[in-house]
Design brief:
By secondary structure, the protein is of the alpha+beta class. It has helices spanning 3-17, 21-31, 55-66, 71-83, 128-138, 146-155, 166-176, 246-252, 254-263, 268-282; strands at 47-51, 105-110, 116-122, 143-145, 193-198, 204-210, 231-234, 238-244, 290-296, 301-305, 311-316, 319-324. Residues 1-39 have low confidence and may be disordered. Bound molecules: glycine (GLY).
């Protein structure tokens, strides 16, 4: 036996022999994760959860999973709905441009194996979430950016399109008259879509997609495509995703924090609240919004936001409800 194995055997024996068994075991348990059987079909599933009033996205995810798709197929199908909606000016086609008039998209996706794919600063492609999935599945990499991401997308057969709609262009022309940069809280009650799903096999997946902050500096990347910030999935524990001011989420690695808090026993709601409180305690948050949603391996869901006005959409049993989220302010 190696020294390490000797030490582990000694510790195990000591714990078994000690009267303080109940004290010792929880400490060990908090570091261990029980393998959860994932091959049993659960009739109460799937459950779909997404940021904001994204009913149509949830329905697309539900339909996909109900027809035999995986949680991963579901979140991709869901995220594609606002991406192709010209009236959703925070995501994909129709998204508001940066200060120089470029629509630049960020997205990521994670599956139940812990695989992750992402694109940042992707231009001219309507469905960055699907490009992110191809990065995950077809390349040795996790994240492609800018010109390289576009080159890869075109090689994969995605169509090059103009994403700047006349509505978003007109608003940008208007904005340029003052060029005042002031992110708005709950911009028209929608923003980045983060979408989470658990399928009938109890497998989790998530996706997050955005055009980022309106009139951002050229080159700015937010939280949405970054694993652990805008999205995190751990199939043994749960998943979480974020919406709102990406800089606040990036600095606090919010989604990873939520999953780790759930690992330690927090409910999804408690974990989301603590992630928001980290921002409150450490960052300048006044007049900015961040909202988190989370789901654990049992399909229990929760959410919390900095400012009031954040809602999420939940679909189970083929019914979608919009839920108002508790907030700090
Ligand atoms: N949460 C989206 C962004 O800040 O880009």
């Amino acid at each position: 036996m190696t020294n390490d194995t000797n030490r582990r055997a000694f510790l195990k024996k000591t714990i078994q022999n000690t009267a303080g068994l109940s004290l010792a075991l929880p400490i060990l348990n908090s570091c261990q994760s029980e393998p959860i059987p994932s091959n049993k079909v659960d009739p109460t599933l799937p459950i779909i959860l997404s940021t904001w009033n994204n009913k149509k996205a949830n329905q697309a995810a539900w339909d996909t999973i109900s027809k035999g798709g995986t949680a991963l197929d579901g979140v991709e199908a869901g995220a594609r709905i606002p991406e192709e909606d010209p009236n959703d000016q925070s995501v994909g086609y129709g998204g508001r441009p940066d200060r120089d008039g470029n629509v630049t998209l960020d997205a990521c996706i994670m599956n139940s194996n812990g695989d992750y794919g992402a694109v940042t600063y992707l231009q001219h492609i309507k469905h960055p979430v699907s490009v992110a999935r191809r990065v995950m599945e077809e390349t040795p990499h996790a994240l492609l950016s800018g010109a390289g991401a576009l080159k890869f997308a075109l090689e994969q057969g995605f169509e090059k399109e103009n994403l700047l709609t006349s509505k978003s262009k007109q608003e940008w022309e208007e904005w340029k008259k003052t060029s005042e940069y002031k992110p708005k809280v709950n911009i028209e009650l929608h923003d980045t879509i983060g979408i989470l799903a658990i399928d009938k096999q109890k497998n989790l997946a998530g996706a997050c997609t955005t055009s980022g902050l309106a009139y951002k500096m050229q080159g700015r990347i937010g939280d949405s495509p970054i694993a652990g910030a805008g999205l995190f999935v751990d199939n043994e524990i749960g998943c979480a995703t974020a919406t709102g001011m990406g800089e606040l989420v990036l600095k606090s690695v919010g989604s990873f924090l939520i999953v780790e808090l759930m690992r330690q026993g927090a409910t999804p709601a408690e974990a989301c609240k603590e992630a928001v409180m980290r921002i409150v305690r450490k960052q300048n948050y006044e007049e900015l919004q961040v909202g988190y949603i989370a789901m654990n391996k049992s399909g229990e869901v929760g959410a919390y936001s900095l400012q009031s006005g954040f809602v999420y959409a939940i679909t189970s049993d083929n019914q979608t409800r919009i839920v108002e989220v508790d907030s700090y302010i």
